[in-house]
Amino acid sequence: MASIPSTMQALVLDAFGAPLVLKDVPLPAIGTNDVLVKVGACGVGLTVVNLLATPGRVDRYPRIPGHEIAGTVVAVGSGVRTIKVGTRVTNHFYITCGNCRNCRSGRETLCLAPRGNVGQNRDGGYAEYVSLPERNVVAIPDGVSDIDAAVASDAIATPFHACVKEARLRAGDSVLVIGAAGGVGIHMIQMARLCGARVLAADVGAEKLAFIRSIGAADVVIDASTGDLAAQVMAHTGGEGVDAVIDIVAARGTLAASLASLAMGGRLVIIGSHPATIYGEDPSFPVDPIRFLHRGLEIHASRYVTLAEIERTLELVRDGKVNAVVTKTVPLEAVPDLHEEIRRGATVGRVGWVSA
Predict the structure, then answer these.
(1) Could you say which DSSP state residue 283 is in?
(2) Which of 41, 60, 267, 297 has the fewest CB atoms within 10 Å of its CB?
(3) Cβ contacts of 142 within 8 Å, gap of 6 or more
(4) How far apart are CA 51 and CA 44, in angstroms?
């Protein structure tokens, strides 16, 4: 193992609204129950872009963002027992207490005493090294690259949770994925197909629609910019609607269309976030309780994943059941350019930074 330096390069956010600046900073300290990871790759997605644009989310500055991390453990705290130096790991995004009834029952995303998020309340992976709690890291199986593991920890694990636990997709079901060309959506299509569902994939723009078709996992590709989305769904389902809608955009218009697209007993799963402070539109939408009652409809909030779901997702990637769709990687210093592309809606699939 190479010697560990005393400083590192990192993209640092000095204040809300400030640009990310590449700096030499001290190596992060590790506590008794922490591990130090040499970052091999880190995913770059809309979650971070929204985080940087939302007042109050980051609790302290300066801060190093980035939460989809993969790399190699180079040092461990004195109390660490389950992770050894040399282990390749990825991480869980949420920093949880581990002791409340939700954490102990495998529902750690609903922790009753949360301590924040990696890259938001604790420095993250836009750096050469990162310190993480032992309980937040998951070993990467042999045969899975750092960038694929980083993407799997969120952009593939989230579809696993959404499809299996929230939408409860089974063979023969039909599902509409809204925002299907994005970093989460393109993996949602694959995961829904793996569950045996018929997949209707919706997005806007010729390039994004062509990208969805190139993956080959969707049964129907819908241009959501042409005509009424729900009417198009009904036309492709014989007027019955779909068994589930997974809305990754979660704007007022897409959520209303989602409800109108559901079949009897259908489930709407909300994954996306469309904050009014960023997009200038209130994302709330009306719900008719009588229609819900008569049609037996459900609304689910899909809130990230469990540690066990990350482990299972990594196995699916290793076994080739789901492919990490990474369309662009850059060095650390070019991450701000990726953020700008994401803001413009110019990316498809997942993007990230990879260590040289």
Answers:
(1) -
(2) 60
(3) 318
(4) 12
Rounded Cα gap, residues 153 and 307, in angstroms: 9
Among 156, 115, 125, 117, which Cα is nearest to 323's?
156
Contacts of 185 (CB under 8 A, 6+ apart): 177, 178, 179, 201, 203, 248
pLDDT score of 356: 82
Q: Are strands 326-330 and 298-301 parallel, antiparallel or unpaired?
A: unpaired
Q: Give per-residue pLDDT as tens, 14-60.
A: 999 999 999 999 999 999 999 999 999 999 999 999 999 899 899 99
Q: By three-state DSSP, how is residue 36 classified?
A: strand
Task: Indicate the DSSP class of residue 122.
Answer: B
Distance CA 300, CA 6 (A): 46
Q: What is the mean pLDDT of residues 173-185?
A: 96
Q: How many CB atoms lie within 10 A of CB 68?
A: 30
pLDDT tens string 207-226: 999 999 999 999 999 999 98
> How many Å from the N-terminal Cα to the C-terminal Cα in the chain?
17
Q: What domains lie within the chain, and their CATH numbers?
A: 7-139+325-354 (3.90.180.10), 159-301 (3.40.50.720)
DSSP character for 48? H
Task: For residue 330, give both structure tokens.
Answer: 């850059």
Selection from 265, 244, 255, 266 nearest residue 192 by Cα: 244
Phi-psi region of 143 (alpha: psi -120 to 50; beta: other; left: phi over 0): left
Rounded distance between C-alpha atoms, residue 25 and residue 127, angstroms? 9
Distance CA 321, CA 155 (A): 15
Taking the C-alpha atoms of residue 24 and residue 59, their distance in angstroms, rounded to an integer, is 22
How many CA within 13 A on the CB side of residue 64? Answer: 26
Cα(241)–Cα(243) distance, integer angstroms: 7
String of DSSP letters for 67-98: -EEEEEEEEE-TT--S--TT-EEEE-SB---S
Whether residue 172 contacts residue 36, with contact meaning beta carbons closer than 8 Å, is answered with no
